[in-house]
Specification:
alpha+beta; binds guanosine-5'-monophosphate; binds zinc ion; single chain; 4 helices
Length: about 140
């Protein structure tokens, strides 16, 4: 669906609301996040409205990672970043706050903070095997 009336990212992606635009093509607008985790923190917004990655058209979704790579390379060359994280949140429990699919590209700089990290847990081989089966049996 294009142009969900109540969706701020639809309005930004389609140019109804102005934004600091890094890149635009027929499928995407890439903007700077208004609350950046680091200088240059960008958001890849599809122009079509999809709530999250599970709803996304696969042809559009397939273009996102190569685009993230191009943006990251631009951050390294243009901003002096030494690396970047690609982050994508699905669902409130995963930290999604805007329910229009978007991908964060976050440049990282020498001496600055790295990736949003997690505490590594532990799981035995049996639990890993059962968990893998539960996911794979439910995939469409
Ligand atoms: P999420 O937590 O949903 O993955 O990320 C939403 C991101 O969108 C946040 O980093 C937030 O700062 C950013 N954001 C929310 N509203 C706006 C907006 O109106 N303009 C811009 N440029 N960024 C926004
Ligand atoms: Zn939207």
């Amino acid at each position: 669906m294009v142009g969900d009336n109540n969706c701020i990212f639809c309005k930004i992606a389609n140019g109804e609301i102005p934004s600091a635009t890094v890149y635009e093509d027929g499928d995407f607008r890439v903007i700077l996040d208004m609350g950046p985790a680091s200088k240059g923190h960008a958001l890849i917004l599809p122009k079509e409205h999809y709530k999250d990655l599970c709803e996304a058209d696969t042809a559009v979704a397939a273009k996102i990672l190569p685009l993230a790579g191009r943006i990251g390379a631009g951050m390294k060359k243009g901003l002096g970043a030494s690396g970047f994280n690609v982050v994508q949140n699905n669902g409130a429990s995963a930290g999604q706050t805007v329910f229009h699919l978007h991908v964060h590209v976050i440049p990282r700089y020498e001496g600055g903070p790295a990736m949003v990290s997690w505490e590594p847990g532990s799981a035995d081989a049996e639990v890993l095997a059962q968990t893998a089966k539960a996911i794979s049996a439910a995939m469409e």
